[in-house]
């Protein structure tokens, strides 16, 4: 049975700030949270030189890496999706829990809010800075499997790399991080395996070590119940 985190008392307050360093044009921002984050959707239109931000809480800190904000940025016909906050290096480890992003013509810059540290360019508008592969698309028939190999350009930045996947089945859609430097990146031989069933999404490292663990449901909630056996 999935744990109903909606009844838990929210804890650990965080803040995301966004600034437009663009010289012209509106920056449209649409963010959606996943996991136990209390504030689900955020939409805003930023004028050049302006900033905005929002506060939120998470309910289950032990599952930080399942909590994240994925945002879509739209400016002058250019679109980009990225994770702007997670329980790791993007905000969860910032002193005071405050994250700051700045969007410029040449890309996306990050630092912990409060002035500590310099701005670091993390992405440009064209692609992620350390991926060798970019897009993977496939249609899976019942009972079938597929996979792909990829490389990470800088292992020191492994927690800044991830695969965000969209699953579409019978009118149901779910977005989730299928690989990060934490989940999957720490598997022996670096092989991650996902299984998609009617009741949700199951994960284990490839090679048979460990049981399948249900991570998400089709409704987008995190499953915190017991692991399942290897029957799937």
TrEMBL record:
It is found in: Secreted. One of its GO terms (biological process) is rejection of self pollen. Transmembrane segments: none annotated. One of its GO terms (cellular component) is extracellular region. Pfam families: Self-incomp_S1 (PF05938). Keywords: Secreted, Self-incompatibility, Signal. Belongs to the plant self-incompatibility (S1) protein family. This is S-protein homolog.
């Amino acid at each position: 049975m999935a744990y109903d985190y909606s009844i838990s008392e929210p804890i650990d307050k965080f803040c995301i700030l966004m600034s437009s360093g663009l010289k012209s044009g509106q920056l449209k921002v649409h963010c959606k949270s996943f996991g136990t984050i209390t504030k689900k959707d955020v939409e805003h239109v930023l004028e050049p030189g302006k900033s905005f931000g929002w506060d939120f809480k998470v309910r289950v800190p032990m599952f930080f890496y399942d909590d994240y904000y994925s945002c879509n940025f739209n400016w002058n016909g250019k679109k980009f999706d990225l994770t702007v906050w997670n329980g790791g290096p993007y905000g969860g480890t910032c002193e005071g829990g405050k994250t700051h992003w700045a969007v410029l013509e040449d890309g996306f810059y990050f630092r912990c809010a409060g002035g500590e540290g310099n701005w670091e360019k993390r992405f440009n508008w064209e692609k992620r800075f350390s991926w060798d592969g970019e897009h993977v698309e496939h249609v899976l028939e019942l009972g079938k499997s597929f996979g792909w190999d990829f490389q990470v350009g800088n292992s020191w930045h492994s927690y800044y790399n991830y695969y965000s996947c969209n699953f579409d089945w019978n009118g149901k859609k779910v977005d989730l991080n299928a690989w990060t430097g934490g989940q999957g990146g720490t598997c022996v031989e670096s092989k991650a395996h996902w299984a998609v069933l009617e009741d949700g999404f199951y994960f284990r490292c490839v090679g048979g070590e460990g049981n399948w663990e249900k991570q998400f449901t089709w409704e987008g909630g995190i499953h915190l119940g017991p692991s399942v056996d290897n029957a799937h």
